[in-house]
Amino acid sequence: MSKPLEGIKIIDFTHVQAGPACTQMLAWFGADVIKVERPGAGDVTRSQLRDIPGVDALYFTMLNSNKRSLTLDTKTPEGKEILTKLIKESDVLVENFGPGALDRMGFTWEHIRELNPGMIVASVKGFSDGHHYEDLKVYENVAQCAGGAASTTGFDDGPPTVSAAALGDSNTGMHLAIGILTALRARDVTGKGQKVAVSMQDSVLNLCRVKLRDQQRLDRVGYLEEYPQYPHGKFSDVVPRGGNAGGGGQPGWVLKCKGWETDPNAYIYFTIQGHAWAPICRAIGKEEWIDDPAYMTAQARQDKIFDIFGTIEEWLKDKTKFEAVDILRKFDIPCSPVLTMKELANDPSLRASGTIVEVDHKERGKYLTVGSPIKFSDMKVEVKGSPLLGEHTDEILEQLGYNSQQIAALHEQRVV
Ligand code: CAO
């Protein structure tokens, strides 16, 4: 089956997570993604957090599947010549170097545009161009702090907290992928490439937009009724950390189930949807609450919401998180067990849908990764192993017109 992005050639100058997550997804969808890496070293994640000595780390393999690897020292004249040839025949160049690195390499946007007017140059940076922090290098948690996620995550009596979800890295990569596809569509119409820039701060903030909503509500009315600080606690003039509160129109919380004393994940997330009040009461055996004016409206429940959660926890005491959800789902109550990575890795539904896939790697053997979270009716996404460092160097140089003697000389000089 042909893939929609077949025929799109991408120079992948990305490293660590933000950029590689973007180009990996484009590779899954059919683009020819050529990962350009420094000879001898490669992407730093190849050797970070290794679980098997001498073998590419999972950090690398899980973010670079379906790509080809070209080693190239782009700071040498010969390396620049190879990169120039590649630029002339590629569609997209993606990079997430520190600020200014591509320019210092001699490949400014103006120069790239001269070489190939159809080229799309896509960049991830910590902060956007012109921002007063634009010179900063940024990693995941730095972005979560800069984008408003950390100040609003965690509990009121604890410090700002970062999320395990890669809001700064992979999330920014997903934004960049949308930008690249949009620029490719624009190029179909105009024939012209363009620069696409996404900052990690902006991408985090985009996912925190409900917190900006809350800041404005707080400014106006002085309290936020869906936060655990309401109505008994205090609000300052900034959006507080809301713990596990629902955050939308329906209260929710993480509730203990059978075994919580020894199992740190024996919990479910329980949501009290306004119109589902009667089924909730029926499910937990509190029918008397259905028509009780002290409980029957969301407003009436607000000041005793944690007592209600306490009553639900009483009901949960003799049920595992899975048993509880199996009962609650019959009452149409939005809920989920708190799932561990181990449970997710072995979840038969995720295996069947291709969300968790087993992939073969030349040196490590089989490993698990997260496959495409996007499902298409006309395309099955096939996740292949990540390339070894420089695995496709010779093949790519041949395609650029270099003969075997020239290639041998480039190896000799450590250009590739
Ligand atoms: N050949 C020759 N030189 C190369 C090369 C190649 N193939 N690939 C990279 N380099 C050089 C760069 O040109 C740069 O050189 P100069 O600084 O001398 O111009 C140098 O390697 C270092 O690049 P860097 O600044 O990107 O790397 P770093 O390890 O110091 O910083 C990071 C890493 C992630 C903090 C930085 O790249 C960054 O802020 N990126 C933007 C934000 C981002 O994407 N962060 C998310 C990373 S995922 O958590």
TrEMBL record:
Species of the source: Pseudoduganella flava
Gene behind this protein: frc
EC number: 2.8.3.16
Pathway: Metabolic intermediate degradation; oxalate degradation; CO(2) and formate from oxalate: step 1/2
Family indicated by similarity: Belongs to the CoA-transferase III family. Frc subfamily.
Quaternary structure and interacting proteins, as annotated: Homodimer.
GO BP term, example: oxalate catabolic process
Root EC class: transferase
PANTHER family the UniProt entry points to: SUCCINATE--HYDROXYMETHYLGLUTARATE COA-TRANSFERASE (PTHR48207)
Binding sites annotated in the UniProt record for substrate: G248, G249, Q250
GO molecular function, one term: formyl-CoA transferase activity
Function of the protein: Involved in the catabolism of oxalate and in the adapatation to low pH via the induction of the oxalate-dependent acid tolerance response (ATR). Catalyzes the transfer of the CoA moiety from formyl-CoA to oxalate.
Catalytic site: D169 (nucleophile)
Protein name: Formyl-CoA:oxalate CoA-transferase
Catalyzed reaction equations: formyl-CoA + oxalate = oxalyl-CoA + formate
InterPro entries in the cross-refs: CoA-transferase_III_domain (IPR050483), CoA-Trfase_fam_III (IPR003673), CoA-Trfase_III_dom3_sf (IPR044855), CoA-Trfase_III_dom_1_sf (IPR023606), Formyl_CoA_transfer (IPR017659)
Domain of life: Bacteria
Keywords: Transferase
